[in-house]
Amino acid sequence: MALHSAIKGKLVTVIGDEDTCVGFLLGGVGEINKSRNPNFMVVDKNTSVSEIEECFKRFVRRDDIDIILINQNVAEMIRHCIDSHSQPVPSVLEIPSKDHPYDASKDSILRRARGMFNPDDFK
Question: What would the pLDDT profile of 48-83 be if each residue is shown by its tens digit?
Fold first, then answer.
């Protein structure tokens, strides 16, 4: 049993608009676990902030998830949850969507990384 779990890989999850989720699902990222819980959430104009928060928190608690991909515009809606997540795993990566380009100034992970390093060290 332990060998099986050591060999079994961890999941990438997606929280985003329909186009983003479909793209990753077509790439083979989608999975539904034994409890019938998917590793993705499609966010549309009718999705409440509390639903997004709950999904994010559920993904953070799952031990079979290593990476959470989230559209940056969706991340902005739950910024307090993302900023309070300080564990390295699962890693939270903010990605652009078709309708919302990536803005590095809003990315909390990038802001944290910049705070860890002195830019003069890389010259």
Answer: 999 999 999 999 999 899 999 999 999 999 999 998
**Under 8 Å CB-to-CB from 10, ≥6 apart: which residues?**
64, 65, 66, 67
CA dist., res. 83 & res. 26, Å (int): 30
pTM score over 0.85: no
Comparing CA positions, the residue from 86, 77, 102, 93 lying closest to residue 12 is 93
- Residue written as token pair 């309708």: 99
24, 69 Cβ separation under 8 angstroms? yes
**Separation between Cα atoms, residue 39 and residue 95, nearest integer Å:** 17
